């Protein structure tokens, strides 16, 4: 993330570099072969669990719950509670390392995976959740699939962590209503990296004092959805603070109105899609005689998304309704 201030004094820049994915965006599923699945000790193969966890002799107990709501924690191994997780997009650029991290965690269990490209995975979220007991679905798929996946999980009483982009404000309203009706939690973030969460927090703080801003969204040429989930979430969070000052309304622009970008929650967002970009999100604040730029630049590995996703997996059981933004889990 880069924070820069331009005014009467020299320009100062402070850089923090996060990591994100190459290609079509951090949340698209890549056609990467699924790793071989190890057989659990009991001899049953868990479809979609790359490097499947070995079943161990343990005391299993359940917690009573209402028929309409899945329990927060349904399995206990020794003195540890275990959250069972299904990953949609398990062969993808982010889904694969998230699944690997789940398998390395003592308090998480990978029980299934969904992929279009791996024969050992389930072909749909509905098929997976009808076949395995899961407490949390993690979705790192595609903008065209994510809403249906989330609704399928909610209908089955499964909590959801949403890492895919492409959902609109209306989509999130529908998801929030469905989650409240079923008594489950949904945690969604346009970006699960810590530095992106700091971008959100810093930008919303700045919007309380600076009245004018616009957002610029950079991504690879192949990313189909625009704006990115990070840019959309940023614009909506800024809109929660207040509407920006606009000297010339978009409808009064002389020339093509599209030249002023898209209006998202009152903020003008400009999406750039060119080769060599990964994912970058920039918000420019301006006042008389000065400007403030806050920017998050992503690198070429999924590592920063993994820690944030695991945090969300552990936080979502017990919540009801939609929580948007990783920064909300850091409070």
Structural features:
single chain, 331 residues, Dihydrodipicolinate Reductase, domain 2, Rossmann fold, 2 domains, seven-stranded mixed beta sheet, elongated
Tell how many strands the DSSP assignment holds.
14
Strand content: 15-25%
Q: What oligomeric state do the depicted chains represent?
A: single chain
Q: What is the fourth-level CATH superfamily of the largest domain?
A: NAD(P)-binding Rossmann-like Domain
Shape, please?
elongated
Specify the helix fraction band: 10-25%
Mean pLDDT, nearest integer?
Answer: 81
Instruction: Give the biggest sheet.
Output: 7 strands, mixed
- The residue ranges in which pLDDT falls below 50 over 5 or more consecutive positions are 2-74
Secondary-structure class: alpha/beta
**In CATH terms, what is the architecture of the largest domain?**
3-Layer(aba) Sandwich
Q: So how many helices?
A: 7
**Overall CATH class of the largest domain:** Alpha Beta
State the separation between the terminal residues, measured CA to CA: 20 Å
**How many whole angstroms does the radius of gyration measure?**
21 Å
Overall tally of domains = 2
């Amino acid at each position: 993330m880069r924070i820069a201030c331009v005014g009467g004094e020299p320009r100062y820049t402070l850089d923090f570099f996060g990591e994100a994915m190459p290609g079509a965006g951090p949340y698209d599923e890549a056609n990467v072969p699924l790793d071989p699945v190890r057989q659990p000790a009991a001899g049953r193969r868990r479809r979609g669990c790359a490097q499947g966890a070995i079943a161990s002799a343990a005391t299993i107990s359940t917690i009573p719950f209402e028929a309409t709501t899945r329990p927060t924690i349904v399995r206990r191994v020794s003195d540890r509670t275990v959250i069972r997780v299904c990953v949609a997009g398990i062969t993808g650029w982010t889904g694969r390392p998230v699944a690997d991290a789940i398998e390395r965690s003592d308090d998480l269990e990978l029980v299934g995976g969904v992929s279009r490209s791996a024969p050992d995975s389930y072909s749909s979220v509905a098929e997976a959740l009808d076949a395995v007991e899961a407490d949390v679905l993690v979705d790192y798929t595609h903008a065209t699939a994510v809403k249906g996946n989330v609704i399928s999980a909610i209908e089955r009483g499964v909590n959801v962590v949403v890492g895919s982009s492409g959902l609109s404000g209306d989509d999130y309203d529908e998801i929030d209503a469905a989650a409240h009706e079923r008594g489950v939690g949904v945690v969604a973030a346009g970006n699960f990296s810590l530095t992106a969460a700091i971008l959100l927090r810093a930008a919303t703080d700045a919007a309380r004092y600076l009245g004018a801003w616009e957002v610029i969204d950079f991504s690879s040429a192949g990313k189909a959805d625009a704006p990115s989930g990070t840019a959309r979430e940023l614009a909506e969070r800024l809109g929660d603070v207040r509407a920006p000052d606009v000297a010339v309304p978009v409808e009064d622009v002389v020339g093509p109105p599209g030249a002023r970008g898209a209006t998202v929650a009152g903020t003008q967002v400009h999406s750039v899609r060119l080769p060599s970009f990964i994912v970058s999100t920039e918000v420019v604040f301006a006042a008389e005689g000065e400007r403030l730029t806050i920017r998050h630049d992503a690198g070429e590995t999924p590592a920063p998304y993994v820690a944030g996703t695991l945090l969300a997996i552990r936080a979502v059981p017990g919540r009801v309704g939609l929580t948007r933004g990783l920064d909300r889990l850091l409070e």
